[in-house]
Amino acid sequence: MSAKTLYILAFETSCDETSVAVLENDRVLSNIILSQEYHAHFGGVVPEAASREHLRKIAELTDEALEKAGLKIEDVNIVAAASEPGLIGAILIGLNFAKSLAASLNVPFINVNHIQAHLYSPFLNESKPEFPFIGLIVSGGHTLLILVEDFFRHRILGTTVDDAAGEAFDKVAKMLGLGYPGGPEIDKRAKNGDRNFHKFPVPRLKDSKYNFSFSGIKTSVLYFLRKNNFESVKNEKIIDDICASFQHAVIKTLFDKTVLAAREFGVKDIAVSGGVSANSSLKHTFLGLQDKGYRIFIPELLYSTDNAGMIGITAYYKYIKSADTGVFKRDTLAVHARPRLDFDNF
Ligand code: KG4
Ligand code: ZN
Q1: In this structure, is the dihedral angle defined by the CA atoms of residues 160, 310, 307 and 124, taken in order, positive or negative?
Q2: Which CATH architecture is the domain 130-298 placed in?
């Protein structure tokens, strides 16, 4: 092992994915993701069950990730874990497991903000964004538009005032009787549907041109279903059309605001990440900007929904950026591992 090589063992347990990754510097050697199936039956995540599932699997998945990477636990010289935001019980499983490992190996522990990890997940791609870039994070819990000036120097331009984009996908899917999570189902259905079937309105917000609101569109889908007596008239075609129309409205608002920000700040690099960035139509729409001189960065499917690879790459940059300043000296471990539930200054 060369002196400069960093072998990072990273954990993600903030919601219903138990994920363990091993990185060699900024390159993923292994990234194991276990999506807990337990919750599908309930149409949403059951927090207590999520924690217990993490606890049951985390040691086994750690062995698996190390084996796949061809490394032994003694080779690891940095341990990282998602520490905020998320389900506190679920986070505590990964965080304490990781901190204990770091302490027993006598190596630094780095805590990683889960949203920040989504933001930097496109750096797992071969080609990486350059600063400044516009980051759009669209996940099940968050929708954020960010001007990223440098590593760990960001300005949040806008956020959702109610539901997150992914949450809207999940709720609309539930109304249509589709499975959980709803995003992939709607994505699949929308491919066969007509996006002009019905115009679902997305409200304009007066307070900020960069904020989002997705709760209104969800309600307008609900009213549409009631008004048209959906339960008695429903067929495959109508479901496909509603999915296509709803999806189109959500993507349009995400796209328009992102382009507006890129123009206003004169930025050509745009990175879209988080679970909803797995959406095929969203990808297609944003990639279309490449003809207009923009560079678009979207993580591979494996790294768009929750995964430990993105925790590892963020820890890597945190480590190399702060190595000069000594921020991550081992004796500060406890301070840096402190979970914080807000994400305003992540
Ligand atoms: O980033 P993520 O895995 O977890 C959070 O941090 O929230 O995002 C999960 C969200 C879910 O709401 C899911 O429905 C959505 O991402 N999602 C999608 C697609 N795949 C996952 N939404 C739209 N189209 C998809 N293909
Ligand atoms: Zn996430």
Answers
A1: positive
A2: 2-Layer Sandwich (3.30)
